[in-house]
UniProtKB/TrEMBL annotation:
Residue ranges of every copy of the Isopropylmalate dehydrogenase-like domain listed in the record: 3-343
HAMAP family from the UniProt entry: LeuB_type1
Name of the featured protein: 3-isopropylmalate dehydrogenase
Pfam families given in the database record: Iso_dh (PF00180)
Keywords: Amino-acid biosynthesis, Branched-chain amino acid biosynthesis, Cytoplasm, Leucine biosynthesis, Magnesium, Manganese, Metal-binding, NAD, Oxidoreductase
Compartments reported by the entry: Cytoplasm
Family under the similarity heading: Belongs to the isocitrate and isopropylmalate dehydrogenases family. LeuB type 1 subfamily.
Protein role: Catalyzes the oxidation of 3-carboxy-2-hydroxy-4-methylpentanoate (3-isopropylmalate) to 3-carboxy-4-methyl-2-oxopentanoate. The product decarboxylates to 4-methyl-2 oxopentanoate.
Gene Ontology MF term list: 3-isopropylmalate dehydrogenase activity; magnesium ion binding; NAD binding
Sites where the protein binds Mg(2+): 218, 242, 246
Residues holding substrate: 91, 101, 129, 218
A GO cellular component annotation in the UniProt record: cytosol
Cofactor note (record): Binds 1 Mg(2+) or Mn(2+) ion per subunit.
Amino acid sequence: MTLIAVLAGDGIGPEVTAQARRVLEVVAPDLTYEEGLVGGAAYRQTGHPLPEATLALAERADAILFGAVGDPEFDGLERALRPEQAILGLRKSLGLFANLRPARLFEGLEDASALKPEIARTIDLVIVRELTGDVYFGDKGRDLTPAGLRVGHDLMRYDEEEVARIAHVGFGTARTRRGRLLSVDKANVLETSQLWRDVVVEVARDYPDVQLAHMYVDNAAMQLVRDPGQFDTIVTGNLFGDILSDQASMCAGSIGMLASAALGETGKGLYEPIHGSAPDIAGQGRANPCATILSAAMMLRHSLGRGDDADRIEAAVARAISEGARTADLGGSLSTEAMAERVLAGL
Ligand code: ATP
Ligand code: MG
């Protein structure tokens, strides 16, 4: 039995995961689903955004389909109890250290990109971002200088194992695509980046079929808007990946179209749209379900070894879009449900 934990969460989360599940039920009817509470929805019922029962379900499941967390009602809570903490807690306790974010422009969505159409059309890349290290998790603090000036500091830190394991994900991903891996760092000024580069070069020996190149992050940011077609797979650290992946998303178009995966050492992964809970449109049936449907496709490919089924879903989404199916974020008027039906029709 293959168990999928469905953590729908807040806002539009339940609306979009329901549609992704409909698509999954057609493409992979043998999967079993169990729903868990997460985020504000969980806080409301249990007093905690990530209840023990949900963690236990996530541990037991083969993969996790995640909607979104975040509810303005709980903005005033102390940080540990806010809905957004649930996703951080899940990544941490499941050891999900690799974030995969594909960015491609679906045919017909040129207008949604921040780039000129002829440039936007060339984007087809995936960013592999390290998720559990770097300056986000190093020592932090506030001090005073002897002269009484306030100081803040965050330690940027990677050890070689952390770099090697994300490098393996990068090479493995490149191998399934066009065989080109770009490692992005700032090795001209950062010691962490010099270690990063050394380790990536060492790991490269295991992947003679993948072509490796390096680029400084400032140049990568520039190239991403100048000529995004040059990129295939990009592997980078937590901080650089955070910034570059949002930048790539805007180049590729609507936030309602982009999927992501968080992967660990085992096959288990957590799959979620890159967008949030969108409280402004929640409950209106207007959310674009494609990002979550595409996340479900990534789940089939990366956790369940069913790349063919993933391809079918992605092709069906591309077809619906190219035939003009549009939710409001894409300038159309289809409901969440109607959009999913157009995808189902293309299967
Ligand atoms: P988070 O902090 O969780 O990333 P956020 O506040 O940054 O959340 P989102 O919740 O992603 O942002 O919403 C940003 C904007 O994009 C909102 O106007 C929202 O309505 C819109 N949006 C997000 N997801 C979708 C979607 N699936 N379909 C249509 N519009 C969306
Ligand atoms: Mg956001």
